[in-house]
Amino acid sequence: MMPSERPVNMPMSPAHAAQSKNVSRRTIMRAIETLDLRASRDNRNHWKIDPQDLDKWADAQCALSEHAHPILPTVPTSDLEVKLAVAEAQRDAAKEQLAGVQEDRDRWREMAEKLASKPRWGWWWR
C-alpha cells in the first residue's frame, strides 16, 4: 500500500483530507471550525475526519461554487450602442435646457439690479 492510499472507511487527518480533495489544509480546518465539516478529536488531540463526511462537504462546496458565479447573459453590442445614443441625446437636451434657464436667470438678475440701483424719490426723502 502506498503512503497516500488509505482503506476506504479509515478516518483521515486534515492534511490527508486536504490532499485527497485538492484543497489546502487551512480550508479543511476552516470548514471544521465553522462546523461545515464534521470531525472529531482522538485521545492525542488529533483531528479525524470520516471520508463520507468529507465527500458530503466536498459535494456541497462544488454546488456552492457553481452557484456563486452564474454566467450572465451578454447584451448585444448594437443594443448598447442604441442605449448610448439615447443617453447622449438626453444629455444634450438637458444641457440646452440648462443654458436657457441660466440665460433667463441672468436676465432677471440684471432687471433686479437695475431696479435696486434707481434712487427712490418720495415724500419721505424730503
Question: Which keywords apply here?
Answer:
single chain; mainly alpha; 126 residues
Give a short synopsis of this structure.
The protein is mainly alpha-helical and 126 residues long. It is built from four helices and two strands, in the order ααββαα. It folds into two domains: 14-68, Multidrug-efflux Transporter Regulator, Chain: A, Domain 2, CATH 1.10.1660; 77-118.
Largest sheet features: 2 strands, antiparallel
Low-pLDDT stretches: none
Order of helices and strands: HHEEHH
CATH class of the largest domain: Mainly Alpha
* Amount of beta strand: under 5%
Ordered list of secondary-structure elements with their pairings:
Layout: H1 14-21, H2 25-33, E1 40-41, E2 47-48, H3 51-68, H4 77-117
Antiparallel strand pairs: 1-2
Helix pairs in contact: 1-2
Commentary on this structure:
The protein is 60% helix and 3% strand. It has helices at 14-21, 25-33, 51-68, 77-117; strands at residues 40-41, 47-48. It has a two-stranded antiparallel sheet. It is elongated and about 110 Å long. The termini are far apart. Residues 1-25 are annotated as: Disordered.
